[in-house]
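Worked example 3 (structure in, sequence out).
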């Protein structure tokens, strides 16, 4: 801070002093003629000009430099000027300048307040666009700064050792913000508002790279985590229908797991490296749980019980297993066209097995009869019965069906029987 040399003679003050001296001489001449001349003469000799100087009053004092001194003659207030404009300095009893005010080279006002040792700790000034306040520690390093810009946005910054900015609090065209830096001046946390006026929260790693994001969009809240490579590996958000969702990604940010909900309930979906659907778990429209693997396999529940279904890559069914309305198990096998060719089930008498040909006709049937004995029926391609095998009577029995009769074969011999109308019923 430039300071002028101290000047002892002040032109304006000296002229004033000369006028006082002239008045004092006139007063002395008048006093000699008075009856009190002898008593006043000693006081006049002691310095009437000094007493007049102590009581001086003036509307305007013009000088290049004015100093106010203490009892010891030390200047404690100095008013002057330099090449940039006026200056004001206040010193303490130890001679340290503790308050300074002046105009800088750009013609702006500056004020500085110092500690008892002379270290500047508060600076008030202007950046040209707006005001500026700096608060420093005892070492003179700026620790807090308050400023504003031409648009009227204010900022408060806190600095660490070495002048590293650590915290910023202020406003910008979008709203308020808070930013936190680490000791390397890298931003590791921020809270602000985005262009739409919504909150935005960021956390960064020691490099200042974003690692966590939380905010809001047109649908609701959202958050995301990134790995060291900057790839998003977890996303939490509210989707367009107001339900919550979570997405887990691989190291390259490709989604691998999706957890969410829809109008029916919760759901979990696993994806392959190509981003295609893999296993999925969800609730169907009836409120029953479903587990599916792509379009080829599913495990589900329905009003009767559990269901297992397998499909070909063409989308046709190849296997189904489920519980029927009676609570009994059923298994079905289909051909490449999706036509049923095999059925295994349980009925009121026991197990049952059915095979069909490519025309859909049942050609093999095997099951337990009402008595609990095993039976098998073999039919020709049109489903007409040709052979029956029965067990569990006095001895086993085979029935050969002919157009007009039935031959019954037993270990004891053959016999003929009238065929039942339309064949046997089972």
């Amino acid at each position: 801070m430039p300071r002028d040399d101290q000047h002892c003679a002040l032109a304006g003050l000296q002229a004033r002093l000369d006028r006082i001296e002239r008045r004092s001489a006139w007063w002395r001449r008048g006093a000699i003629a008075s009856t009190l001349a002898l008593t006043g003469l000693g006081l006049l000799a002691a310095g009437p000009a000094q007493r007049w100087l102590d009581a001086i009053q003036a509307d305007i004092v013009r000088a290049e430099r004015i100093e106010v001194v203490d009892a010891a003659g030390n200047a404690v207030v100095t008013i002057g000027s330099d090449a940039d404009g006026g200056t004001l300095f206040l010193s303490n009893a130890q001679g340290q300048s503790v308050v300074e005010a002046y105009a800088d080279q750009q013609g702006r006002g500056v004020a500085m307040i110092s500690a008892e040792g002379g270290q500047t700790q508060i600076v008030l000034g202007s950046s040209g666009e707006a005001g500026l306040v700096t608060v420093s520690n005892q070492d003179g390093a700026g620790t807090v700064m308050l400023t504003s810009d031409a648009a009227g946005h204010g900022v408060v910054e806190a600095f660490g050792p070495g002048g590293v900015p650590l915290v910023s609090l202020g406003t910008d065209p979008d709203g308020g913000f808070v930013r936190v830096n680490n000791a390397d001046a890298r931003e590791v946390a921020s809270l602000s508002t985005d262009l739409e006026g919504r909150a935005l929260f960021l956390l960064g790693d020691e490099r200042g790279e974003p690692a966590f994001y939380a905010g809001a969009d047109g649908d609701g809240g959202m958050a995301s985590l990134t790995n060291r490579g900057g790839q998003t590996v977890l996303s939490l958000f509210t989707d367009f229908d107001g339900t919550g969702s979570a997405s887990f990604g691989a190291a390259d940010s490709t989604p691998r797991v999706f957890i969410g909900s829809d109008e029916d309930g919760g759901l979990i979906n696993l994806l392959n490296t190509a981003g295609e659907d893999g296993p999925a778990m969800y609730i169907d429209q009836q409120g029953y749980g479903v587990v599916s693997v792509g379009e080829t396999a599913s495990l589900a529940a329905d009003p009767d019980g559990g269901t297992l279904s397998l499909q070909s890559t063409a989308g046709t069914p190849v296997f189904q297993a489920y519980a029927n309305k009676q609570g009994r198990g059923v298994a079905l096998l289909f051909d490449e066209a999706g036509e049923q060719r095999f059925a295994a089930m349980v009925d009121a008498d026991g197990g049952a097995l059915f095979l069909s040909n490519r025309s859909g006709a049942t050609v093999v049937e095997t099951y337990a009869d009402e008595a609990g004995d095993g039976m098998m029926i073999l039919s020709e391609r049109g489903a007409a019965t040709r052979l029956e095998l029965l067990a569990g009577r006095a001895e086993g029995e085979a029935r050969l069906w002919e157009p007009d009769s039935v031959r019954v074969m037993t270990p004891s011999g053959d016999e003929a029987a009238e065929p039942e109308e339309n064949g046997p019923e089972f």
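Notes: The chain has three helices and 33 strands. Residues 1-46, 421-426 have pLDDT under 50 and may be disordered.
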